[in-house]
Amino acid sequence: MPQPTRGFSASSPTSPLGLFHFVRRDPREDDVVIDILYSGVCHSDLHTARNDWGGTVYPTVPGHEIVGRVVAVGTGVTQFKVGDAVGVGCMVDSCQSCGACARGWEQYCERGMTGTYNSSDRVDGSPTQGGYAEHIVVRQEFVLKMPEGLDLKGAAPLLCAGITTWSPLRHWKVGPGSKVAVVGLGGLGHMALKLAKALGAEVTLFSRSAGKEDDAKRLGADRVVISTEKDQMKAVRGQFDLILDTVPYAHDLNPYTATLATNGTLVLVGFLGLQEPAVNTVPLILGRKSVAGSVIGGIAETQEMLDFCGQHGITSDVEMIAMQDINEAYERMLKSDVKYRFVIDMASLKQSA
Ligand code: NAP
Ligand code: ZN
Description:
By secondary structure, this protein is of the alpha/beta class. The protein has twelve helices and 17 strands.
């Protein structure tokens, strides 16, 4: 029998999130049923709830940084058992047969990956709903094993903020000797500092916000550059092999491309859309520099990142909130007033009447 569940959903771009009763499917043969303990709050949740990118189908239950415990498994599940600590990130399915899936790049599935929310289930076409809920049902190939010893609250944001920054760091082969810069100290940015440092890079933070210097250094930055200060920007011209740009809104890339070294790459993971002002190609052409993009990471790569975090004791810096506080949390996230990720304690939803 399909299981009734409760979550928090947005019902229009302008309405606050509120309690929503819906039904999760009965587990299919290869499904894992997860009791959700914690759910991180990503800026993408806010973009989707408010239809910033277009295409949101309402009601929508956001949440794609999910950590919980297995409470049931389908008859064909071999990878997980009841009681396991598991995670679910931004994808819950892909075609599993195209060239991208065969290479472990499910996030670039040629037939389109199935998002954890605001997508359609590949088998029955029902809308997918995310982690701001009591439980979730996910096929075993898209369930991650949480490493032992990591605090599960702090580990929840690894499922999106962690993998989204890990994947480009690995793709562009960051290691000892690499000079990496991160633009924006929010959820993604603070994970980028931690992971780049742990990989052995020299790390710089670009921030608009004076006052984040001490935190940035504690999180792994060797240097902080206030991006609105022209002299500080000039002092780092031509330096970076890789810049990870996490800014959620359109912004001028030209001050940042100027700080790339020859052969350097600025990889966008934040803003989706047409950047303004236009990018000047002169420094790109004259320095063989690239502007690139990247979305989350594959499943094997996500497990690799989780295991790396387990070995290095890396988790996110989190502020725990109750489910009922989500609307205030969104307003604070818009003001960059979070150190550095909100995580919902799902007990708050389960205990409410
Ligand atoms: P966040 O916690 O709100 O952090 C964004 C940071 O960007 C802020 O802390 C701020 O840092 C800076 N910032 C914000 N507004 C800015 C503006 N108008 N101009 C310049 N800088 C600004 O957000 P997040 O959860 O890290 O997500 C960041 C973006 O990545 C979102 O757009 C999200 O949708 C996207 N995302 C992409 C992927 C992917 O796979 N590519 C995955 C997850 C999220 P300072 O105060 O330090 O300047
Ligand atoms: Zn996210």
